[in-house]
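REVIEWER CHECKLIST
Item 1: Sequence provided? yes
Item 2: Single chain? yes
Item 3: Sequence as submitted:
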Amino acid sequence: MRKWTMPLTLLGLGGLGYLVLSERGQQALRWMAENLDRGPDKFLEWNEAAQRDLDRIQVALNQVADSVEAGTFESET
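Item 4: Structure as written out by the authors:
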């Protein structure tokens, strides 16, 4: 891994240099600066959507567990 440290560092620094010095990179940085305040709201929306999905998955898993549990009790009797 040590053989790759210097090339990866130079690649990363070159990418940052391109981002800062190129016109397209500067446009991207301006866009990010202008839209930075929207970030927390979008993250909260994503978080709520992910939580709803997790809740649905939990309900489905509980139903599967209940049906498996009911099946094991029926086979024991």
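Item 5: Key structural point noted by reviewer: DSSP finds three helices and no strands in the chain.
Item 6: Recommendation: ____
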